[in-house]
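Hi R.,

As promised on Friday, here is the backbone we talked about, encoded as C-alpha coordinates. Could you run it through your design pipeline when you get a chance and send me back a sequence?
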Protein backbone atom coordinates (compact mmCIF):
# COMPACT_ATOMS: atom_id res chain seq x y z
CA UNK A 1 0.00 0.00 0.00
CA UNK A 2 1.44 3.34 -1.14
CA UNK A 3 1.78 6.03 1.44
CA UNK A 4 0.95 9.53 0.31
CA UNK A 5 3.34 12.24 1.44
CA UNK A 6 2.42 15.88 1.62
CA UNK A 7 5.04 18.54 0.85
CA UNK A 8 4.98 22.15 1.81
CA UNK A 9 5.49 24.81 -0.86
CA UNK A 10 9.13 25.31 0.07
CA UNK A 11 9.72 21.54 0.01
CA UNK A 12 8.11 21.33 -3.45
CA UNK A 13 10.39 24.11 -4.69
CA UNK A 14 13.51 22.44 -3.29
CA UNK A 15 12.44 19.06 -4.69
CA UNK A 16 11.76 20.63 -8.10
CA UNK A 17 15.18 22.20 -8.16
CA UNK A 18 16.80 18.92 -7.20
CA UNK A 19 14.96 17.09 -9.99
CA UNK A 20 15.82 19.86 -12.42
CA UNK A 21 19.44 19.80 -11.34
CA UNK A 22 19.60 15.99 -11.73
CA UNK A 23 18.13 16.16 -15.26
CA UNK A 24 20.43 19.00 -16.19
CA UNK A 25 23.48 17.08 -15.04
CA UNK A 26 22.31 14.08 -17.04
CA UNK A 27 22.00 16.36 -20.13
CA UNK A 28 25.40 17.92 -19.64
CA UNK A 29 24.14 21.02 -17.83
CA UNK A 30 25.42 22.64 -14.65
CA UNK A 31 23.49 24.75 -12.18
CA UNK A 32 25.14 27.64 -10.42
CA UNK A 33 23.00 28.82 -7.50
CA UNK A 34 25.06 31.99 -7.01
CA UNK A 35 24.31 33.12 -10.63
CA UNK A 36 20.79 31.70 -10.57
CA UNK A 37 21.31 30.53 -14.16
CA UNK A 38 21.85 27.36 -16.09
CA UNK A 39 24.98 27.24 -18.25
CA UNK A 40 25.06 24.33 -20.65
CA UNK A 41 28.05 22.50 -21.93
CA UNK A 42 26.31 22.62 -25.29
CA UNK A 43 26.93 26.38 -25.46
CA UNK A 44 30.61 25.83 -24.84
CA UNK A 45 30.74 23.07 -27.41
CA UNK A 46 28.77 25.24 -29.83
CA UNK A 47 31.30 28.07 -29.45
CA UNK A 48 34.17 25.67 -29.99
CA UNK A 49 32.49 24.24 -33.09
CA UNK A 50 31.86 27.76 -34.42
CA UNK A 51 35.50 28.69 -33.85
CA UNK A 52 36.58 25.52 -35.64
CA UNK A 53 34.19 26.24 -38.53
CA UNK A 54 35.53 29.79 -38.79
CA UNK A 55 39.09 28.48 -38.83
CA UNK A 56 38.20 25.89 -41.48
CA UNK A 57 36.50 28.56 -43.59
CA UNK A 58 39.57 30.80 -43.37
CA UNK A 59 41.79 27.85 -44.27
CA UNK A 60 39.58 27.09 -47.29
CA UNK A 61 39.80 30.72 -48.44
CA UNK A 62 43.57 30.74 -48.00
CA UNK A 63 43.78 27.44 -49.89
CA UNK A 64 41.59 28.84 -52.68
CA UNK A 65 43.77 31.94 -52.93
CA UNK A 66 46.85 29.72 -53.03
CA UNK A 67 45.36 27.67 -55.86
CA UNK A 68 44.52 30.82 -57.84
CA UNK A 69 48.22 31.70 -57.85
CA UNK A 70 48.75 28.77 -60.20
CA UNK A 71 45.54 29.02 -62.28
CA UNK A 72 44.52 31.28 -65.13
CA UNK A 73 40.85 31.47 -64.15
CA UNK A 74 37.78 31.10 -66.33
CA UNK A 75 37.12 34.67 -67.46
CA UNK A 76 39.06 34.14 -70.70
CA UNK A 77 39.34 30.92 -72.71
CA UNK A 78 41.42 30.21 -75.84
CA UNK A 79 39.90 28.96 -79.11
CA UNK A 80 42.87 28.50 -81.43
CA UNK A 81 46.53 29.53 -81.55
CA UNK A 82 49.14 30.27 -84.23
CA UNK A 83 52.81 30.42 -83.20
CA UNK A 84 55.77 31.70 -85.21
CA UNK A 85 59.31 31.06 -83.94
CA UNK A 86 62.51 32.47 -85.42
CA UNK A 87 65.27 30.05 -84.46
CA UNK A 88 69.02 30.00 -85.01
CA UNK A 89 71.14 27.42 -83.14
CA UNK A 90 74.22 29.65 -83.41
CA UNK A 91 72.53 32.28 -81.21
CA UNK A 92 71.71 32.22 -77.50
CA UNK A 93 68.23 33.72 -77.82
CA UNK A 94 65.17 33.31 -80.01
CA UNK A 95 62.15 35.43 -80.87
CA UNK A 96 58.63 34.88 -82.05
CA UNK A 97 55.04 36.00 -82.14
CA UNK A 98 51.71 34.37 -81.50
CA UNK A 99 48.10 35.05 -82.31
CA UNK A 100 45.56 33.47 -79.95
CA UNK A 101 41.84 33.50 -80.70
CA UNK A 102 40.15 33.99 -77.33
CA UNK A 103 36.68 34.34 -75.88
CA UNK A 104 36.16 36.71 -72.97
CA UNK A 105 33.35 35.17 -70.92
CA UNK A 106 33.24 37.72 -68.12
CA UNK A 107 34.09 41.42 -68.21
CA UNK A 108 37.69 41.98 -67.15
CA UNK A 109 40.61 44.32 -67.65
CA UNK A 110 43.34 41.65 -67.66
CA UNK A 111 44.12 38.49 -69.60
CA UNK A 112 46.28 35.92 -67.84
CA UNK A 113 48.46 33.47 -69.75
CA UNK A 114 51.40 31.16 -69.08
CA UNK A 115 55.00 32.05 -69.92
CA UNK A 116 58.31 31.29 -68.19
CA UNK A 117 61.57 33.11 -68.99
CA UNK A 118 59.73 34.80 -71.87
CA UNK A 119 59.79 38.57 -72.30
CA UNK A 120 56.76 39.93 -74.13
CA UNK A 121 57.89 42.92 -76.20
CA UNK A 122 54.50 43.83 -77.68
CA UNK A 123 50.91 42.96 -76.74
CA UNK A 124 47.62 43.95 -78.37
CA UNK A 125 44.00 42.89 -78.12
CA UNK A 126 42.35 43.00 -81.53
CA UNK A 127 38.69 43.08 -82.51
CA UNK A 128 37.77 43.99 -86.08
CA UNK A 129 39.88 47.07 -86.88
CA UNK A 130 40.42 48.05 -83.26
CA UNK A 131 43.83 47.36 -81.68
CA UNK A 132 44.03 47.86 -77.92
CA UNK A 133 47.58 48.07 -76.47
CA UNK A 134 48.13 45.93 -73.40
CA UNK A 135 50.55 46.27 -70.52
CA UNK A 136 52.25 42.99 -69.63
CA UNK A 137 53.25 42.14 -66.07
CA UNK A 138 55.01 39.04 -64.74
CA UNK A 139 52.95 37.69 -61.83
CA UNK A 140 55.15 34.72 -60.98
CA UNK A 141 54.33 31.02 -60.79
CA UNK A 142 54.58 30.82 -64.60
CA UNK A 143 51.81 33.37 -65.14
CA UNK A 144 51.87 36.75 -66.88
CA UNK A 145 49.06 39.27 -67.22
CA UNK A 146 48.23 41.56 -70.15
CA UNK A 147 46.01 44.37 -68.90
CA UNK A 148 44.34 47.59 -70.00
CA UNK A 149 42.74 50.44 -68.06
CA UNK A 150 39.50 49.97 -69.99
CA UNK A 151 37.14 47.11 -69.25
CA UNK A 152 37.23 44.31 -71.82
CA UNK A 153 33.64 43.39 -72.58
CA UNK A 154 32.62 39.75 -73.17
CA UNK A 155 33.13 38.65 -76.77
CA UNK A 156 35.55 37.20 -79.30
CA UNK A 157 39.05 38.73 -79.69
CA UNK A 158 42.53 38.09 -81.00
CA UNK A 159 45.41 38.28 -78.52
CA UNK A 160 48.61 39.24 -80.38
CA UNK A 161 51.93 38.87 -78.57
CA UNK A 162 55.52 39.36 -79.71
CA UNK A 163 58.21 37.89 -77.50
CA UNK A 164 61.80 36.78 -77.03
CA UNK A 165 63.66 34.48 -74.69
CA UNK A 166 66.85 32.49 -74.11
CA UNK A 167 67.39 28.92 -75.19
CA UNK A 168 67.14 26.68 -72.14
CA UNK A 169 70.25 24.64 -71.27
CA UNK A 170 68.55 22.17 -68.89
CA UNK A 171 66.73 20.06 -71.52
CA UNK A 172 63.30 21.62 -70.96
CA UNK A 173 61.20 23.91 -73.11
CA UNK A 174 63.11 25.05 -76.20
CA UNK A 175 66.66 24.03 -75.37
CA UNK A 176 70.11 24.06 -76.92
CA UNK A 177 72.91 21.51 -76.79
CA UNK A 178 76.34 21.51 -78.39
CA UNK A 179 77.78 18.22 -79.70
CA UNK A 180 81.35 18.22 -80.96
CA UNK A 181 81.18 21.94 -81.52
CA UNK A 182 77.89 21.86 -83.43
CA UNK A 183 74.82 23.50 -81.79
CA UNK A 184 71.44 21.77 -81.92
CA UNK A 185 67.97 22.84 -80.83
CA UNK A 186 65.38 20.50 -79.31
CA UNK A 187 62.04 20.86 -77.60
CA UNK A 188 60.59 19.24 -74.49
CA UNK A 189 57.12 20.58 -73.77
CA UNK A 190 55.94 18.03 -71.19
CA UNK A 191 54.70 18.47 -68.48
CA UNK A 192 54.32 22.25 -68.39
CA UNK A 193 57.43 23.34 -70.26
CA UNK A 194 55.83 24.56 -73.50
CA UNK A 195 55.43 27.88 -71.66
CA UNK A 196 59.22 28.22 -71.84
CA UNK A 197 59.03 28.42 -75.64
CA UNK A 198 56.05 30.72 -76.21
CA UNK A 199 53.10 32.28 -74.34
CA UNK A 200 49.98 30.11 -74.17
CA UNK A 201 47.07 28.94 -72.04
CA UNK A 202 48.88 25.93 -70.59
CA UNK A 203 46.19 24.13 -68.56
CA UNK A 204 44.60 20.71 -69.20
CA UNK A 205 41.10 22.16 -69.63
CA UNK A 206 42.29 24.23 -72.60
CA UNK A 207 42.61 21.75 -75.46
CA UNK A 208 42.75 23.79 -78.68
CA UNK A 209 44.12 23.41 -82.21
CA UNK A 210 47.34 25.30 -82.94
CA UNK A 211 49.72 25.85 -85.83
CA UNK A 212 53.48 26.18 -85.39
CA UNK A 213 55.70 27.91 -87.97
CA UNK A 214 59.51 27.72 -87.73
CA UNK A 215 61.94 30.08 -89.42
CA UNK A 216 65.50 28.70 -89.51
CA UNK A 217 68.71 29.71 -91.33
CA UNK A 218 69.22 28.30 -94.80
CA UNK A 219 70.99 24.94 -94.64
CA UNK A 220 69.41 23.98 -91.32
CA UNK A 221 66.99 21.05 -91.07
CA UNK A 222 63.72 21.30 -89.11
CA UNK A 223 62.00 18.10 -87.94
CA UNK A 224 58.57 17.57 -86.40
CA UNK A 225 56.63 14.61 -85.01
CA UNK A 226 53.48 15.89 -86.70
CA UNK A 227 52.66 16.30 -90.39
CA UNK A 228 53.94 19.58 -91.80
CA UNK A 229 51.80 21.61 -94.18
CA UNK A 230 54.53 23.30 -96.21
CA UNK A 231 58.25 24.13 -96.43
CA UNK A 232 59.52 27.37 -97.93
CA UNK A 233 63.12 28.27 -98.73
CA UNK A 234 63.69 32.00 -98.41
CA UNK A 235 66.39 33.65 -100.52
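Update: got your reply. Pasting your designed sequence below so it's all in one thread:
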Amino acid sequence: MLKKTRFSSIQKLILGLLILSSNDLANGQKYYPNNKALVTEQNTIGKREQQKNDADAKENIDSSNQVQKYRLGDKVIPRQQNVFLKLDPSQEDFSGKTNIAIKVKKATNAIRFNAVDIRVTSAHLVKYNQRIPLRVEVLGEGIQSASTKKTIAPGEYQLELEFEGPYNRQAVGLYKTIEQGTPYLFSQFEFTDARRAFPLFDEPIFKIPFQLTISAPKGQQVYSNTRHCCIKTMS
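One thing I noticed while checking it: The CA atoms of residues 23 and 29 lie 8 Å apart.

Thanks again,
M.
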